[in-house]
Amino acid sequence: MSERRRRGRGTRGLTAALVLALAGAGAGIGLVVTPRASAVTPPVSFTADSLPTWQTNGIVWALTQVNGTVFAGGTFSELRPPAGAAGTPRAAVNFAALNAATGAPTSCRLSFTATSGTATVRSLVVSRDKKTLYAGGRFGAVNGVKVSNVAAIDIAGCAPKSAFHPSFSATVRALAVSDTTLYAAGDFSTVQGQTRRKFAAVNASTGALRAFTANADESGRAVELTPDGRNVLLGGDFFTVNNSSSHALAVVDAVSGTVRKTYNSFHRLSVVMDIATDATGFYTGNQGNGGGVFDGRAAFDLDGFGERWRDRCLGATQNVLPYGGALYIASHAHNCATEGEFPDDGKRRYLMAQPTAHKGAEPAPVDGFVPGPRKLGWFPAVNGGIGEGVGPRVMTVAAKDGTAYLWVGGEFTTVNTKPQQGLTRYASTGDVGNPTTPVASAAGVAPGEVQVRWRTSFDADDSRLTYRIYRNGGSTPVHTMTADSLEFERRQASWTDTAVTAGTTYTYRVTATDGAGNTSAKSATASVTVPVTAPSYPDRVRADGAELYWRYDDTVSPYVADSSRAGNTGGLQVGGPALRQAPGAVNGTSTAIGFNGSGQQVYSDHRQTVGSAYSLETWFRTGSTRGGKLIGFGSHTTWNSSQYDKQLYLTDGGRVVFGVYPGSVQVIASPWQEAYNDNQWHHVVATQGPSGTALYVDGKLKATSGVTGHGEFTGYWHVGGDNLAGWPARPSSDAFTGQIDETAVYPKALTAAQVWNHYGLASVS
Question: What is the enclosing helix (H) or strand (E) of 752?
């Protein structure tokens, strides 16, 4: 829940994409994509590298720009040099003018004050002729010239226009301007002594009240003109406009205020905080005042004003800015599970971007709404800061000397983990941040093949990275390929080297390079000896179609490599489980992973759904009498998933249980007289398909049911622990104690013959 505010608009434009050629040999597996790169990954136009910028000692609520100068308004009293830079603070009473290209103050100085209470500037907008700056907020004077919550500033002279002084009875929170008219939204009930509730319009030159009437029952928080100037978009808390039922959003005639379009699809506790337009439509940023209330963004067409898509991420959206085909977002997003993206993982993402429109076919509606476009690879880091701790509040784009700058204002106090308060900026050029270093491993999967695999890297402004694989310490890569990754999803990528000789040992290292040429350090060396004959057990698991196959032969934390043929679903270790536990379940050199029953697990680094047919397979060894989860599917990345299903777990007594949740818990279990907590390796397979569920232990069928449904949601595979609340014979511990090996997930139900074959091959591999 957040204080409401408004800001002026910046310029909008397009960014160009450059072409990057790829080279290499061998078979690329997993996330190979069509090559494309630029300084940042289109349609993102700005780097995530913050530039030195003068900062405030309070909150910035409003930003706008003209001719390379950025105007900032808010609740502050001082401008300070960037952290660590030379210079002394200077007084700045709720207003600052700064050079867009240098981040330093200009000579323009204005003081917005009030005779009582705290003065604040909540909105700034520039006239179409670029000669006048309009300010709205709560203030009674500008440089001593009396005004009443709205002021007009002569930009060339940096002075208030004393002849322009319309009287608004309370705080003005948003402004928009046409060639002749200034529109306002806020808390007021009268203007010039005449009734105008929450929305009003005045002559842009004289301040005289217009006939425009759009009376609302609750506060106005946003106002914007449609590009043709014929209609005004209203946003706020309201439920009626001119006595027409319309909650949080309405479209009215720009001259009369007559209602043209009403909306009642937002939750009654969802407020439109911001409205922005581009050539194709308009966008709202919403704040939900309560748990689970719509907190995200919605896009609407200009032709008919119908809704195009809705992004239901949670984390109050404060500001939206369309630019170059991307919608930049200021929010504190913490849960985008409804969009098939990150769950509520305890992390807030204050700055993000997504395309303004879906690329290709529009997705099917979910709960009656078309989902929003998937997030882009742009995640600059700021914190929540002071005030309400929601971080950024406002954005604008300013161009100077051929470079575009995205300015961000708000209540944050750090940027990219370094002290910086209230203001920061990002450029369209000059990307200098390196991607993170890949975590690589290699496995000999056949006499003439080595699978090199790595966790894709994270780059704050590039989602498509180029990877180069170096063999045996060479300086020239043996393969180059691209793969996509996002801050919250870094799937494994892999490549199969077929130019190898059986019985020979090879080493591999991998680097990641972004579109600007910034390159990570080389990964740690991965060493592998090519087998003379294919290992029987893993060869069969791969051949039978495993789409996730964790062998637990990893030598470094926190990544678990996927040895499936697809090679794109790695795992992340939580709590530091023990690596290289020997002997493993399968005869040979393969090792297992060890869990201590207290906060340790592995989860898949890929959010997904599970089809109607699948199989879960793993080996385990334990002597514990506290049970625990072997493998399951959960909605969260780490512990305490709110949704959990497809569970394979041990009871305190050592029985194996498999269950699904197609609306109610349905389980099958091994016989009560059989205990598998005997410190021996045991093989377990659970399947579900058109004929129902089946449970196998040590190659033998132990139980079946006719249940064909399961819980349908997006989530992650978990091994070694996650929520088991409410499930039959729930063990004393949801976390498993012991060793686990050779975990595989298949997109089909394995047959009894296949299960028996796998069990038998373990002793001969």
Answer: helix 752-761
Residue 220 CB partners (closer than 8 Å, separation 6+): 173, 174, 184, 185, 186, 187, 198, 199, 234, 235, 236, 238
Confidence class for position 589, pLDDT limits 50, 70, 90:
confident
> How many CB atoms neighbour CB 497 within 10 A?
22
Q: Which residue from 61, 199, 227, 205 is spatially nearest to 132, judged by alpha carbons? A: 205
**Contact in structure between 623 and 689 (CB atoms under 8 Å):** no
CB 668 within 8 A of CB 695: yes
> Which residue from 460, 319, 332 is spatially nearest to 396, judged by alpha carbons?
319
3-state helix, strand, coil in the chain (%, to 5): 5, 45, 55
CB-based contacts of 210-217 (< 8 A; 24+ apart in sequence): 210/181, 211/255, 211/256, 211/257, 212/181, 212/183, 212/254, 212/255, 212/256, 212/257, 213/242, 213/256, 213/257, 214/241, 214/242, 214/250, 214/252, 214/257, 214/259, 215/241, 215/242, 216/240, 216/241
299, 281 Cβ separation under 8 angstroms: yes
The band of 366, judged by pLDDT with boundaries at 50, 70 and 90, is: confident
SS3 state at 543: helix
In the block, which residue shows the tokens 């506060």?
219
Minimal CA–CA distance to 348: which of 318, 323, 309?
Answer: 318
- DSSP assignments along 375-390, one per residue: PPS----B---STTS-
CB 606 within 8 A of CB 637: no
Please check whether residue 511 is in contact with residue 493, taking contact to mean a CB–CB distance below 8 angstroms: no
At 437-495, the pLDDT tens digits run 999 999 998 999 999 999 999 999 999 999 999 999 999 999 999 999 999 999 999 99
Q: In this model, does residue 92 exceed pLDDT 60?
A: yes
CB atoms within 10 A of CB 179: 9
Nearest to 262 by CA among 242, 280, 282: 242
In DSSP terms, which residues pair with 18 in a beta bridge? 37
CB proximity list for 34: less than 8 A, separation 6 or greater: none
> Tens digits of per-residue pLDDT, 321-356?
999 999 999 999 999 988 989 888 889 999 999 999
Measure Cα distances from 305 to 225, 308, 534, 717 in Å.
13, 9, 62, 41
Tokens found for residue 388: 């309400």
Which secondary structure element, helix H or strand E, spans residue 686, and what is its range?
Answer: strand 682-689
Amino acid, res. 368: G
Taking residues 423-450, what's their average pLDDT? 95
65 CB-near residues (< 8 Å, 6+ apart): 8, 10, 11, 71, 100, 126, 396, 397, 398, 407
Q: Which token pair is 257?
A: 């205020």
Report the range of poorest mean pLDDT among 456-460, 556-560, 654-658: 556-560
Query: If DSSP states are collapsed to H, E and C, what string results for 180-240?
Result: CEEEEEECCCEECCEECCCEEEEECCCCCECCCCCCECCCEEEEEECCCCCEEEEEECCCE
Q: What is the mean pLDDT of the chain?
A: 93
Residue length of the chain? 765
Mean predicted confidence (pLDDT) in 280-289: 96
Q: Is the peptide bond before 166 cis (omega within 30 degrees of 0)?
A: no
Q: Give the contacts of 381 (CB within 8 A, at least 6 positions apart).
A: 48, 350, 351, 414, 415, 416, 417, 460
How many other CB atoms sit within 10 Å of the CB of residue 534? 17
* pLDDT attached to residue 116: 94
Give 511's contacts (C-beta < 8 A, 6+ positions apart).
437, 438, 467, 468, 470, 519, 520, 521, 522, 523
Residue among 107, 701, 53 at smallest CA distance from 410: 53
